[in-house]
Design brief:
heterodimer; A: alpha+beta; Alpha-Beta Plaits; 2 helices; 18% helix; B: alpha/beta; Rossmann fold; Ubiquitin-like (UB roll); de novo design (two linked rop proteins); four-stranded parallel β-sheet; 17 helices; globular; disordered N terminus
């Protein structure tokens, strides 16, 4: 079980702080909205991820629990937690 | 249950014969297209009293392998079990919005055999412990609303549904209004726009209650499974996708309209069923405006089921097929649809709000022979998966498939400013003014 980044696209207004704070996993599209890397957040990136989540002005960036099945594949993002 | 004394079945002592082959859902449709009455319906299928319901129906639906017919092909049994496992009394929402412009099968069922759909709703409600059933029908489907309201009245008079109460709610029918979270937000007093999940409908839906949202056709199948069982249901279809399905076929065929097929049937057979092509066809749109194109003649060998189509980059969707005449310009057709899908964005998510118009602009430029934006290919992959609902995913899939299948015609447009085909319009675009409130 580990965390993945998730954007609430309805809440997101494209401020872009997340991409600035966490360029390892977040870049912006042509209109300034974040494109997040779907891979689970590794322990060494956890702090950066949390900083990006905490600084989103519209609370649109989330760390969501993902569950892995028997084969180790991610079974999609679960309930977001902040 | 007060319905246990229902008089309708008292007059029908013989159990109804198990139907064989096709059609299943359309078997009780009258020649004159008037709705099947409650009496006629019970005479053919028997009473819901003799059908499996309660928790046993969940296991039965799981064993049947029934999947949702609204477009997502999600296993219905899994959904029933998830709702039943929640705390609190669930609500059942029948999704009859059918906002896909080229689709008409759900409205056809509501209009012609409303009691079969309502049986399915009442049985599904019984399976998960719901007592409230809301049938959401689009604002423009006036005849369907009247028929269903009368059908509910007939059931009420005969007191056949015990503690389950049914009502019709008029819902907006803009393209995204049929998305299940959009319908739920509307039923909760908000705009008919999708919401961010979780919570998912089975966790929190109408009034915060766990909510089972099922498509009209899905419930009609469920009503038959509850009567005739899982092995019967599996007599048609494929092991992964058993049963029959309704399709709406339009374009260059002799008999456009609603057809019932066994899942896994080759497109070729459906075309024969629809009277064959009336003129040469360039390609078939399979799965509606979230779907993909398949070129003639290879398309005829496609098997109509989700598994087969998904392996070829497509999808069964809600069972929409359009045969595009070879004399119609595909480039202007897809550009029109791309614009429509951009206009129909709920306007909530940045990538959809900005991405779909940019993609539509690019396609429109091709129709007049101007080079499209070099960023088009990148947009088509980047926008996908980044909305609260599947609207941007479907719209980009449609556009990407169009670029792929009509590459030759696009080349012609870029070289000569237009193609040899006419601008006769085939793909339906609803009139503007379908609001989301």
């Amino acid at each position: 079980m580990s965390d993945v980044l998730r954007v609430n696209p309805i809440a997101c207004e494209g401020h872009g702080l997340c991409a600035e704070l966490f360029p390892e996993r977040i870049r912006l599209d042509d209109w300034g909205y974040p494109i997040v890397d779907p891979r689970p957040i590794t322990p060494e990136l956890e702090q950066h991820a949390r900083r990006a989540v905490d600084s989103c002005p519209t609370l649109a960036l989330l760390l969501a629990r993902t569950h892995t099945n028997a084969t180790g594949a991610a079974v999609g993002p679960g309930r977001p937690r902040r | 249950m007060t319905g246990a004394t229902g008089l309708t079945t008292a007059r029908q002592p013989d159990p109804p014969a198990t139907p064989r082959g096709l059609p299943r859902l359309l078997a009780s449709v009258r020649e004159d297209a008037r709705p099947t009455s409650l009496d006629e319906h019970v005479r053919r299928y028997g009473s819901t009293r003799d059908a499996v319901t309660g928790p046993a129906l969940i296991s039965l639906v799981e064993a049947s392998g029934l999947r949702g017919r609204g477009g997502a092909a999600f296993p219905t049994g899994v959904k029933l079990r998830a709702v039943a496992a929640q705390r609190g009394r669930p609500v059942l929402v029948v999704n009859g919005v059918e906002a896909e412009p080229a689709s008409g099968k759900d409205r056809a069922l509501l209009r012609t055999t409303p009691q079969l759909v309502l049986d399915g709703a009442v049985l599904a409600a019984g399976a998960v412990g719901a007592q409230e059933v809301i049938v959401g029908i689009g604002r423009h489907a006036i005849r369907e609303r009247e028929v269903v309201a009368a059908a509910i009245d007939a059931r009420r008079r005969k007191r056949i549904d015990g503690r389950v109460s049914l009502r019709v709610v008029v819902a907006p029918d803009a393209f995204v209004s049929g998305e299940e979270t959009a319908l739920l937000q509307f039923l909760n007093g908000g705009p008919a726009k999708p919401t961010f999940t979780p919570p998912r409908p089975f966790e929190r839906g109408v009034g915060g209650a766990p909510t089972l949202v099922q498509n009209v056709e899905t419930l009609a199948h469920l009503a038959l499974i509850a009567r005739f069982g899982a092995p019967w249901f599996r007599e048609l279809g494929t092991p992964a996708e058993p049963g029959s399905a309704l399709l709406t076929i339009s374009g260059a065929v002799a008999r456009p309209g609603i057809h019932e097929i066994a899942l896994g049937t080759p497109l070729r057979e459906l075309l024969t069923d629809a009277g064959g092509a009336t003129e040469p066809v360039s390609a078939y749109l399979v799965g509606g405006y979230f779907g993909t194109w398949f070129a003639e003649p290879a398309a005829r060998e496609l098997l109509l089921d989700e598994e087969h189509l998904a392996a070829r980059g497509g999808g069964f969707g809600a069972g929409v097929i359009v045969a595009l005449p070879a004399t119609t310009c595909p480039v202007s057709e897809v550009a029109r649809v791309a614009r429509y899908l951009a206009d129909e964005s709920a306007g909530q998510c940045g990538p959809c709000v900005h991405g779909l118009p940019a993609i539509a602009d690019s396609l429109a430029r091709i129709t007049i022979g101007e080079a499209h934006d070099q960023r088009l290919a990148r947009w088509l992959t980047e926008v996908r998966g980044r909305g609260a609902c599947r609207h941007p995913d479907g719209a980009t899939r449609f556009a990407a498939s169009s670029l792929d299948v009509f590459a030759g015609e696009i080349e012609e447009h870029l070289r000569y400013g237009r193609c040899a085909a006419s601008d006769r319009r085939v793909l339906p675009i609803p009139a503007r003014g379908r609001d989301r409130r």
